[in-house]
Amino acid sequence: MNKYVNKLKKYACIEAINYIYPGITVGIGTGSTIKLFIEELKQVKHLIKGAVSSSKESTKQLIKNKIKVMDLNDISGLQLYIDSADEINKNKQMIKGGGGALTGEKIISSFSDSFICIVDENKIVKDLGKFFPVPVEVIPMSINYVCSQIKKLSGIPKIRKSFITDYGNLIIDVFNLNLENPLYIENKINSISGVVSVGLFIKRKADILLVGTKQGVKTYF
Questions:
Q1: Catalytic residues
Q2: Same-domain pairing of 75 and 173
């Protein structure tokens, strides 16, 4: 099963390389699909100025593949951000943060001119939140307060055990949220004091979705 899923992921990764052009700076997400993408990116690393990484994990892999890593604060613009998703709908709205890198991912995607999301067909859903919780990165001292506020939204908060983010924070995985209006929920959670970032990518959804399927890659603009 894993080999089959990885094959579909790789289809999407190879298609994403077609969006790389000479002189571009590329934002890089995090996760198993992005590991495969970096393996493809190294084949054309001579074309790019460098990459901006969303996590320590991706930075290590970029360095391993001798791809130049750039600091977001040292560049004036970012043309392209490429990442995957825990689940995504055909409106290109998604849940991210299963790997805990949601804050870096949200910052870089928001800074980028274009966001391409690459997934296998198993990540496509009709309704967000039925299979994955919504991760929320939280400053440690606010954990109990944030949980109490999430409960007021009918969410069921569960603190992720033995996990610290790259920024020294905690993750609350929120189950049972009503995501019929996901932008409202994204804004509502973001407004809670102590919340650093929420793994709903609604306001900053993908511009292009590349889906690896048995029939090849399907593209949604």
A1: 105
A2: no
pLDDT digit string, tens, across residues 139-152: 999 999 999 999 99
Structure tokens at 182: 């996901």
- What is the four-CA torsion angle of 24, 49, 111, 90, rounded to 10 degrees? 50
Angle of helix 2-17 relative to helix 32-41, nearest 10 degrees, comes to 50
pLDDT of residue 4 exceeding 90 = no
- Domain at 173, CATH number: 3.30.70.260
Asked whether residue 186 falls in the same domain as residue 214, the answer is no
| CA-based end-to-end distance of the chain | 29
User: Per the confidence metrics, is the pTM higher than 0.90?
Assistant: yes
Helix (H, G, I), strand (E, B) or coil at 26: strand
Q: State the residue range of the domain holding 162.
A: 134-199
Residue 22: its H or E element: none
